[in-house]
Predict the 3D structure of the following.
Amino acid sequence: MKNDKNIQPSPTSLSKAERCGMIAFALAVMLAAVNLRLATVPLTLFLMLCAMAPFSPRIGFFFPVISRGHTAMPVVALTFDDGPDPVTTPRLLELLGKYHVPATFFVIGGRAAVYPHLVRAIIAQGHEVGNHSFHHNRYRMFCQPRLLEHEITATQRVLAPLGIVPLAFRPPIGITTPFMGKVLAARNLVAVNFSCRAFDGGNRRIGRLAKMILSHVKPDDIVLLHDSIPGPGQPIGQWLGEIEKILQGLSEKELTPVSLSRLIGRPVMHRRV
């Protein structure tokens, strides 16, 4: 299943940010001839856009970001962030196996280092694994390119002895920054975010998880879910029940879960023999 729309452009291609910046500058020059105060308007709008863009997972403002497929088929991809976890991962794998549903696990490197047997179990059951940083630091690493680089490479190193080379990176919370694209490109990684989520706060709010997903999911969506212990007062069984409702609901909506690599038309990981 080829998906040309999701193939990254050449390094010489201008990003959306660069194109918008050039347009803003050109408008500022033209407006300056009329009124210097007016010249600040496009530049101010551009700076505001740069400030908001990192928190919009689907925009790909600073560099190309994959957030959905373009297969034109009734398929979706399920992705689970923040694992592996000794309590949730085995039971989640069992549930996915029951319904014969493939998934992609964007794992935290620090957790993969502690629970390598769970990563092996994920792979053994035919699922895919991506890089989700080493510590899942939500904000600090996005202000420090060297820290971001360490977070990514440390996770790659942890997964390498397990026979896995991730080719996809999901930023924590989907936040992107101008320098992230260069860091990923240098390591042959592509950013993969999502187009459908339940705003569950990393399983801290699971009461309406299935309802939120099923009311918004569409063909070619990349669905964001989490492989982590639910918040206080929310039993594991309740979370699993919500995931099962999603699996059943997708079938009722005639949407078939497929692997992320199939949905986006490019490999998510390589296996080392």
The chain has a mean pLDDT of 91.
